[in-house]
Amino acid sequence: MARIVLFNKPFRVLSQFRESGDKVTLSRYFKDPALRVAGRLDFDSEGLMVLSDNGKLVQKITDPRFKLEKTYLAQVEGVPTEEVLEQLRNGVILKEGKTRPAKARLMDEPADLWPRDPPIRYRAAIPAAWLELTISEGRNRQVRRMTAAVGFPTLRLIRVRVGDWNLDGLAPGECREAG
Which amino acids are annotated catalytic? Predict the structure, then answer.
């Protein structure tokens, strides 16, 4: 039976086990050498990571051919209009080509959101908004690049869902076995 572990990756943790200078890695949280990362999260992104000891499952989660949906909450600089959301929904042109269409909507700041350390910079003259974005591919820094391409840079990015798995109340640095 495959072991599947859901982990809430904290801000400024590398999505790898191999040590990398003075940066914190997954080896601080996991000692099982059989676990593999099924989809990375950037050093400066937070949220759900799926780990497993089953290589075929890891490949299925990460391979874009399977179009597994991933949902992110993105705090962006400025307040996107419906026109901007429609651009995200239709796909955005990045340097390597157009992204698949995304599901995109404005949302209120999540009520159960943990504080980030250090906090996002506050600018009284520039408002911020929260977007929920669901994508079915995983290009390098894709959500950040998509929001920047439509004129709304990402300030904070949290992955909350991968396929049918979600954070479900996991605090940063916590994990649980998926059943």
Answer: 42
Enclosing domain of residue 50: 4-63+166-177
Per the structure block, which two tokens stand in for 54?
Answer: 């089953």
78-137 pLDDT, tens digit each: 999 999 999 999 999 999 999 999 999 999 999 889 998 888 877 766 789 999 999 998
* Same domain for 173 and 146: no
The CA-based angle 76-152-89, given to 5 degrees, is: 95
Q: How far apart are CA 79 and CA 89, in angstroms?
A: 16
User: Cα dist. 112→9, 35, 105, 155 in Å?
Assistant: 16, 29, 19, 18
As a whole number of angstroms, the distance between CA 55 and CA 118 comes to 35
User: Do 89 and 31 have their domain in common?
Assistant: no
pLDDT (0 to 100) of residue 140: 86
**Whether residue 112 is found in the same domain as residue 144:** yes
Tokens representing 126 are 């520039």
| Number of domains observed in the structure of the chain | 2
Say whether both 136 and 58 belong to one domain: no
